[in-house]
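User: Modeling request: complex.
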Amino acid sequence: MSLAVPAVLLVLWEICSRHAIVSPRYFPPPTTVGWVLVDGFAAGDLGTQALVTLTRLGFAFATAAGPGVLLGLLMGMARPVRDAVEPYIAFIFPVPKITLLPFLMIVLGVGEPAFVLTGATSAFFQIVISTLGGVQTMDPRLLEVGRNYGARGARLFWKVILPAALPAIFTGLRLGLGLALVALVAVEFIAAKSGLGHLVYRHWQMLSTPEMYAAFALVGALGLLLTRGLRAVQARVLTWQEEIDRL
Amino acid sequence: MRAMSHWLGEHWIAVGSPIGLFIAWEWASATGLLREAFFPRPSTIVAHLRQLAADGTLWGHTAMTLVRIGWAFALAAVLGVGVGLAMGLWRQLREGLDPVFAVIYPIPSILFLPLVSFLVPPGEIALVVTTAVTSFFLIAFTTTHGVRQIDRLVVEAAVHYGARGWRLFATVLLPGALPFIFTGLRLGLGFALIVVVAVEIVSTSRGLGALLWLSWQILKVEDMYATFFVIALLGAVLSYGLAALRTRLLPWVQDVAERSG
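Assistant: Request completed. Predicted assembly structure:
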């Protein structure tokens, strides 16, 4: 049942395109796009570009995750740190991170470090905010109980604060990964000369629409895999949390 | 006065930290510790900002961006709330559309630009529609969720007391879903800004995104910083301003995203 509607839509599209009810030049039949996908992977070209995007995503996420969680925890536990850093977080967080790209490109030059860091900042702020939220909204009774039983310093952190904040941290990492992908694809679309985002841009400009849709579908699959997959992992690993997703 | 000095005593770090940073930046750029070609002094940036504002360039671009955000947000809000309510009320519709939405939603909105430009006349309309895409999904999602989380007992009680059709909708379902709808609108507005800037970078010569990109291409670094500042200010106004507006207009409505961190 749940796949019926997408299937019907695809069949409808196929028929309309085959009979030129919609322009097959702009909306090629899904089967054609499917064959382009198969051919692209067989030739290795599509796989290579997907790998480029995934590698950038990996580097961006790795750059953002550690410092993001660390800063979030520090801000949550030490009031002066929070006071000192919060103005910048609050100011930069709503800004489209793609606007940082030109700044990173003049400092680092046009190349991978600038691209990757744009994706990383996108994830970083989300991770900091989620982690901070996790520490701040933890039940104060947990802290008191921990203290009463003699947990202090490192023990209090490892046994009480971190487990309480872990669901929020994981949510931050999951959202951050998604945001990094969005930022990176935009960077590829705008500035980079490789990756799936660039592939969509290039084939749009050349009006080779089947290839464009193939790359488009691949980005969609990647996004779906990341969001759904990580949510499943989160539900399995963090069994003590109540509810994961708010949306 | 006392209240203010008390406030300052509480928040002196939060106030002092940015001031300290700007002084340090000014000093480092002036002494050459930071390369002024990359990190122009804040005072220079302010001078450029004033000049851009004085000759009207900035207002033109800002107005352009704001108009685009306004249209895109209006489009996303009307369609998103409408579709979201319908999906919340009718199970069949929800089950049918859910998988379609799940696939489309994670796709970065900038990629819709080519698709949209095939569907509608390219130019301003394509730009606005592209900007609306992600906001639409966000608003539709949160609205659906808002309708679904309404306590069944409340709905049943209302039905027993004879509320049906429009009355049920206007007095029970809509108020019940309102916190979620508002959260969706707030997030959607934020996303509209993010996407419009990216789209302006790619495809136009006007608007704040275009101004930023143009300044980068001709390496007018000071203008880049000035434009960035305006975009950031816009982001702050849109996200925090709307939150403040809600507390004032709908004080009983809680922001769902804020509630659970």
